[in-house]
C-alpha cells in the first residue's frame, strides 16, 4: 500500500536557505506522523512543508497505516538507506519508540519531536507540542461551565496507554475536575484509538451510570466514537461531550450539536516550529529544547469566529 502522504496544503512560498558555510549539503527532512490520512497530522504536515520550502529544504512524509509503534518503527527503519538530515517524529509510544529513534540519531540525523514525546526525550534536539495538561484543564473548566450546578458523573476516554499527549490531557482534566464538587469522575477508559471501542465504552457507561452528565474525549477518534455511542442511545445533547482537536467531522459535530465544545490545537504551528528547530540545529543556530503551541476552547456559539483553528483534511 502507498504510504507517501500527499496532503492538500496551500502551495507555500519558495524561499532560499540562508546558505553560507553553516547550511548543510543534505537538505532532506523527514516527517513521521502518528498515523496516515488524519486531519491533525495532515495540518501538521502542511505547516511543516510550507516552512521547509520557505527555508530551502525538502520535507518527505512517511506515515504508518495505524497509530501503532510496530508499524511506525517500520517507517523509521525504512529511512536507513537514505538518512534525512533531520527527522520530525510523533512517537506513538513513549517507550517502545526510543530504540528505533535512537538508531536514526546514531547515524547523525537530528531528531525533533512533534506532538507526542518519549519518556526520555534526550535523543531529541527539540520537542514541540500543545500544553496537553493545560488542554485537559481547559476541557474540565469548559465542561463544568456547560453542566452548571447540576450534580453528576463524568467519563474520560483516552486512546492507548503510552501516548504522552492524551495521557497528559486525561490527567490534567481529572485533576482540574476536583475543583467542581458537583462533578464526579467515573475514571479513564482506554479505547486503543478505535472509534468503535470508544462507542461501546460510552454505551456501557450510559447503562451503568444513569447520572452521566459529561464526557471528555481526549482526541479525534475517541470523540467520534463517543458521539456514535450517544447517538445510539438517543442521548445527544443530554450528555455534554467535550472533544479535543478540530477535524472537519468534529467541526460538523459541533455545529449539529453532537459536541458541546472542542479544544482545538494548532498542528500547523507545531509542524512549522518543528522544521524551524530542525533547521536551526542543522545550521548550528540556537535551538529551543521545548516549545509549546496554542490551544483554543470552541463552542457552537463562537465557532464561526474561530474558523482559523479548524484542521485541514
Ligand atoms: O490529538 C491528536 C494528537 O495530538 C494526539 O497525540 C493523537 O491524536 C491526534 O492525532 C488526533 O487524532
Automatic annotation (TrEMBL):
<dbReference type="InterPro" id="IPR025997">
    <property type="entry name" value="SBP_2_dom"/>
</dbReference>
<protein>
    <submittedName>
        <fullName>ABC transporter substrate-binding protein</fullName>
    </submittedName>
</protein>
<dbReference type="Pfam" id="PF13407">
    <property type="entry name" value="Peripla_BP_4"/>
</dbReference>
<dbReference type="InterPro" id="IPR028082">
    <property type="entry name" value="Peripla_BP_I"/>
</dbReference>
<keyword id="KW-0732">Signal</keyword>
<comment type="similarity">
    <text>Belongs to the bacterial solute-binding protein 2 family.</text>
</comment>
<feature type="domain" description="Periplasmic binding protein">
    <location>
        <begin position="30"/>
        <end position="285"/>
    </location>
</feature>
